[in-house]
Specification:
By secondary structure, the chain is of the alpha/beta class. It folds into two domains: 8-287, Type I PLP-dependent aspartate aminotransferase-like (Major domain) (Aspartate Aminotransferase, domain 2); 291-425, Alpha-Beta Complex (Aspartate Aminotransferase, domain 1), CATH 3.90.1150. It is built from 17 helices and 14 strands. It has helices at residues 8-14, 41-48, 63-76, 87-98, 113-125, 138-144, 167-177, 189-192, 237-240, 251-255, 259-272, 278-289, 291-310, 329-335, 351-361, 391-396, 413-425; strands at 80-84, 104-108, 129-133, 149-155, 157-158, 163-164, 181-184, 202-206, 220-224, 315-319, 343-348, 366-367, 377-379, 403-407. Helix 1 runs antiparallel to helix 3, helix 4 (87-98) crosses helix 11 (259-272) and helix 15 packs across helix 17. The structure holds pyridoxal-5'-phosphate. InterPro entries: Cys/Met-Metab_PyrdxlP-dep_enz (IPR000277), Cys_met_metab_PP (IPR054542), OAc-hSer/O-AcSer_sulfhydrylase (IPR006235), PyrdxlP-dep_Trfase (IPR015424), PyrdxlP-dep_Trfase_major (IPR015421), PyrdxlP-dep_Trfase_small (IPR015422). It holds the Pfam family Cys_Met_Meta_PP. This is O-acetylhomoserine sulfhydrylase.
Length: 426
């Protein structure tokens, strides 16, 4: 064996997986079982007391899911990961470990529309207060910090316009405030950006998007960077204080640099219950094997399509960080040199009606609410994903009435351009 560290594409195929020790199966089997037999009573007791690692019940862990967790942790450069049922489940499980009623977290205003909803409405009912900041104005994060701030949440490449966030600058604010930086890396995937390399403490994903990549399975994942000290100042009692349900152990003291991933599993997932089906874990693992190939092709296609749109007379403007003229191009060169992602927006001279009209005329693009599929997708955010926002908030989050969002797939770019051409021209 050489002592070379495996590269990203090798990890995407192999990390976490071995031939099945009993059958030799080369693909990771789907362990479609709810529960696992204990060796004896002592083994059972030690598993329940967190004195030994092992399988108990699929709500808490499953061998197929474990391969997925190890693979994504390796791709992101984290110490450990926890797979859950969806991207939204990942967000609620992460924040449940950090927040007490009355606490605050700061979130970038440019986010996936569903996250804006979750933070504004569902989290409010838990007593968790979101404070919005502008990802283009790092000082706005600094100004938002209070003694009750427990975390900062941003997207690496932000919905819907594919803008690039200055992760390092915001991680400096988080470090100064003594709170973890959580980065939703869904639109970039670790192939384009590894937020932990830029100061993130926790990475979350909707696996539903580019990692699974085929538009067929929901999933989410939490990656622990292992960088944050949870014991300072008694701010994070879930991690630093004795846990009554586990014989009084303190998670940070016992599990060190993967304590956060453990807390998410043995407190969050165990009690809230959004477990990922092993079948979905298998589908997503299969998807991840081709992530580098798909992501590169999708970025290359997206750039060609953004250039085509920028030159079209019906188009008022294109927001794609991969274009040299884009305001995020400098940040894209720094954070995502392989490509600026495959999700971006453009605006039409004809406003809201032109957006609705375009969406109805496209044939190869599917009109639906998803991103990161092999298929190219289109949506008009103002009438769908961002429709719950008032007009000013729509514009602030990059989803004004004239804006159309594309998620570019792996088809031939000439066919995608031809479809846009007929729909724009007609
Ligand atoms: C889709 C998405 C989510 C939510 O993920 P689900 O798997 O749909 O729950 C969160 N963040 C981003 C950036 C997304 O695109």
């Amino acid at each position: 064996m050489s002592d070379r560290l495996p590269g990203f594409s090798t990890l995407a195929v192999h990390a976490g997986a071995q031939p099945d020790p009993t059958t030799g199966a080369r693909a990771t089997p789907i362990y479609q079982t709810t529960s696992f037999v204990f060796n004896d009573a002592d083994h059972a007791a030690s598993l329940f007391g967190l004195q030994a690692f092992g399988n108990i019940y699929t709500r808490i862990g499953n061998p197929t899911n474990a391969v997925l967790e190890e693979r994504v942790a390796a791709l992101e450069g984290g110490t450990a990961a926890l797979a859950v049922a969806s991207g939204h489940a990942a967000q609620v499980v992460v924040l449940q470990q950090l927040m007490q009623p009355g606490d605050e977290f700061i979130a970038a205003r440019k986010l996936y529309g569903g996250s804006i909803n979750q933070f504004t409405h569902a989290f409010k009912s838990f007593g968790w207060n979101v404070v919005w900041a502008d990802p283009d104005d790092v000082a706005s994060f600094e100004r938002a910090v209070t003694p009750r701030t427990k975390a900062i949440f941003i997207e690496s490449i932000a919905n819907p316009a594919g803008s690039i966030t200055d992760i390092e600058a915001i991680s400096t604010v988080a470090r100064k405030a003594g709170v973890p930086l959580i980065v939703d890396n869904t639109l970039a995937s670790p192939y384009l950006i590894r937020p932990i390399d830029h100061g993130a403490d926790i990475v979350v994903h909707s696996l539903t998007k580019f990692l699974g990549g085929h538009g067929n399975s929901l999933g989410g994942i939490i990656v622990d960077a292992g960088t944050f000290d949870w014991s300072t100042g008694g701010k994070y009692p879930m991690l630093s204080e004795p846990r009554p349900e586990y014989h009084g152990i303190r998670l940070q003291e016992t599990f060190g640099n993967f304590a956060f991933a453990i807390a998410c599993r043995v407190l969050g997932l165990r009690d809230l219950g959004p477990a990922l089906s092993p079948f979905n874990a298998f589908m997503i693992l299969t998807g991840i094997e081709t992530l580098p190939l798909r992501m590169q092709k999708q970025c290359d296609n997206a750039k060609a399509i953004a250039e085509f749109l920028a030159g079209h007379p019906a188009v008022a403007s294109v927001s794609y960080a991969g274009l040299a003229s884009d305001k995020y191009n400098q940040l894209a060169r720094k954070y995502a040199p392989k490509g600026a992602g495959a999700v971006f927006t453009f605006s039409l001279k004809g406003g809201y009606d032109a957006g609705v009209n375009l969406v109805s005329k496209l044939q190869l693009f599917s009109h639906l609410a998803n991103v990161g599929d092999t298929r190219s997708l289109v949506i008009h955010p103002a009438s769908t994903t961002h429709s719950q926002l008032d007009d000013a908030a729509k514009v602030k989050s990059g989803a004004g009435p004239d804006v159309v969002r594309l998620s570019i797939g792996i088809e031939d770019k000439e066919d995608l351009i031809a479809d846009l051409e007929q729909a724009l021209g007609a």
